[in-house]
Amino acid sequence: MSEIEIFRKVMPELYWCPRCNVPVFDENCGKCNGFTIKVRVTPPGDVRPAFKKDIEDLRKTLYDYFTDWNIVDFMLPRNKFVLLNKIEYPDAADEIIVDGQILGHRFYDVEKRLWRFKPLYNGVAGILKLKTNYYAIVALPRIRRRFVVHKKHIVEAKLPSRKGEYVAISTEKGNLHGIAEYVGASRLRVLKAWRGRKFLKIDAEGDFKVAIEANKHRLENLENEAIDFIKKVVDRYNLPVIVSFSGGKDSLATFLLVEKALGKVPILFNDTGLELPETVEFVKEFAEKNGVELLVADAGKKFYEALEIMGPPARDYRWCCKVAKLSPIANLVNTKFPEGVLSFVGQRALESTRRALSPRVWRNRWLIKIVAASPIQYWTALDIWLYLFKEKIEANPLYFEGFDRLGCWLCPAVELGELEAVAEKHPELVKWWTDHLKKYAEEHGLGEAWVRFGFWRWRKLPGDQKRIAEKYGLKIEKDPRGAPIEVTSFKVEEGVPVRVYGKIEGLRRLEYFQNLLHILGQVDASTSLDEIMVKTSDSIFRIKPSGEFILSSKSRTWKKILLNILSIAFRASYCVKCGSCVSNCPKNAITYGGEGVLIDLGKCTKCGLCNFACPIAVYSLPKLNIFKLLQV
């Protein structure tokens, strides 16, 4: 199933009331009871309202395209209820909806490092109506995607001087409209075409008060269903209850719903060390004003310590979530709720395909003592905002300063366009991160473009990013990220037993390595750190301080044994004491040592769960040259 198909199953239909001039999630307006117009938004359709700062930023982007404030006022006046719909682009992008019509796209151009406007549908109709920049009337019976319009086809036009600019296009009769890219020499490459339409403009001024009334039945139904869901989940699990509170709009709405269903419950805030100071302050003030207990899972400096070992996090290399988010939460829950806890979270299906496919109640393998449940799973961002305004509750002020998403400000899931808001608010943070990336790129021969285009956000570049990289001659032969361990001189002698010879480069903290090997078998007590030996019923492993090792095994699963040993090598050598293995040990057999963790041999049952709980090992093992060979 494609992403679009997944989202279409969960996204609600969006309509617009032409009399009230506000969005409605029904075929009839809840305020005037009149008919509505369907708005065909691009999936996922997680529409959100544009606030004052958003609209001012949009108007600046439109001005960069039109260079005329009168046209900007005509296209996007300040007094309208405007929706933004986040859509798929190489970077940050939004569909702009005004008067129930799609005006165009606002997107961040990573090559030019600026926001640009791409007119579509109503925006194209408006340009053709005003005959302003840029447009072309063509003597063609039809226009279609990828077709190149030549000078001989154009009967009337106002064309740009620069390549790459967007041009509204129409057939002479106006039965077909489209948007094209100027490619030079009076030629246009059609990007998209559709049936022609007239420019629609509604005089009525919609606002939040009107929008709330227009959607009152939906908001009531959503609230009632969520409260009923909360009560049923509480009855089912019979656990202490908390609300996972990020300081964002979704967790705020979730708290209000839980409070209505159960009364006041504690809120848990995860301070990853990467939260914006305004969010930290908002969470503290919210707890004080509302008289609720605030539990803080504090990661301290764990991210920065792991960063020196693991390198920058990436979308396909999210060690940061485990170290700075999940491990601190698990540690707090183990201490505060040793028997487990029920956590209500602000997860919504329209945020990603993974969340769209997620059940409404689940457990995370990294948080084994938490049952998580989402009362707002099928709410849109617009539902959330209308509900918060209806409840007259103050939200995080960052939302009104150009921020759409909150949380870790340098999350690898962030778009470069979104980082612009951080740079505007906290330039010192973005400067520190940029300087760190430049230093890392220089040390590993990755090139300046790796930083400039945000390629650090992937270990393996996706198609659209790869095309940009190829354009600028950037080739990443091997991603260097991960703890610095490698296996060299690897040799296997088949037979019974199988003998494996090799050398682990980068091994250190041998005393911790020796201790952790106990989870596999009996470590020979007669050996010193000059040679460590561990025995199981069918295998013997010996390793010297130089890293040279021999594995002798009669087991068919010798590859799995060696992978476990390598995992232990990562854990011992580069532990940052994030606490993930401590929290996941069912026998409480792991404690903190000076530079790492230690196994209590009297408690350990050799279950091996701690080996699967270490983010350093989990995210570093796959980078080994022999990893594919050893996968079982």
Q: What report would you give on this structure?
A:
The chain is an alpha+beta fold. It contains 21 helices and 28 strands. The strands form six sheets. It has a six-stranded mixed beta sheet with strand order 10-14-13-12-9-11, with helices on one face. A hairpin with a 2-residue loop joins strand 6 and strand 7 (101-109). Helix 2 crosses helix 3 and helix 6 (216-237) packs across helix 7. The chain is globular, with a radius of gyration of 29 Å. The two termini are 28 Å apart.
Helix- and strand-based class? alpha+beta
In whole angstroms, the N-to-C terminal distance is: 28 Å
Averaged pLDDT, please? 93
Q: Looking at the structure, what is the overall shape? A: globular
How many extended strands?
Answer: 28
Strand content: 15-25%
What's this model, at a glance?
This protein has 21 helices and 28 strands.
